[in-house]
Amino acid sequence: MLRRLFERIRRADLITSIARRTGLVLILRVLSLVMAYVVHILFARWMGAMQYGIYSYTMAWIAILAILASLGLSTAVLRFVPEYRVKEKWALLRGVILGSSYLTLAAGLMLSIAGTVVILVLERSQYTIPLVVGVWIVPLVALVQLQSEICKARGRVVLAHIPLLIRHLLILTGTFLFLQQMGAPGAIEVLVLLMFVLMAIYGVLAWKVNQDLPPEAKRTHPYYRIHMWLRVSLPMLLVAGTSIVLNQTDIIMIGVLLDSSKIGIYNAAIKTSGLVVFIIMAVNTVVAPVFAELYARKDNRMLQRIVSATAHWIFWPSLAIALLLAVFADPILGFFGPEFVSGRWVLRVMLAGQLVNAAAGSVGYLMQMSGHQDDIARVFCCSALMNIILNAICISTLGIMGAALATTTAMILWNVWLYILVVRKLEVHPSVISCLWNTKEQGD
Question: Residue 319 half-sphere exposure, CB side, CA atoms within 13 Å?
Answer without folding.
Answer: 10
